[in-house]
Amino acid sequence: VAASGDTILVAPGTYTGTGNYDIDLLGKRLVIMSSHGPEVTVIDCQGQGRGFLINGHDSVLKGLTITNGLASQGGAVYSFRPSTIRDNIITGNQAVSGGGIYTVAVLATAITSNIITNNVATGDGGGIYHENNGAPTDSNIICGNSAAGRGGGIYQNVSDSIRDNRICDNSANTGGGIYCSHW
Q1: pLDDT, position 107
Q2: Most exposed among 8, 53, 90, 154, judged by the fewest C-beta atoms under 10 Å?
Q3: Average pLDDT for 29-33
Q4: 73/150 Cα distance (integer angstroms)
């Protein structure tokens, strides 16, 4: 029902079941944010699908915990439009690529001040998988993620701006913390 430009304010609670996974922004520019922070506002996908599909330019996802997501790309969040993913807890999700977050936006998806932990990729990018993304990855905690392939914490196929992050205890076949295929 929301129109492009709207803000959706999510009340505290744990959201499960139909309608609380595979949330598609339908190409709209939306701000989806919690009213009281990620510690009390949880999207639990229950292994039924991913959390969010961001396909609207300049959308914002802020202040949520997204957990138990399962998808081929982006267990918690798949973004293919320029957007902002900020102040979230992304934990316990799984995908082939991008256990936590998968970005493919050529014009940039900024990932800032998130806690990205305990996500799993059966391929590349346990915490984050960046494909053709030109935005900063700043001030995040990226710890305890794993990938069977490359980039336990972060996989990138371009040289992006990664600064002021805490990257720890991630594991992968190649590049436990960060793997970049093109510098």
Answers
A1: 64
A2: 8
A3: 97
A4: 15
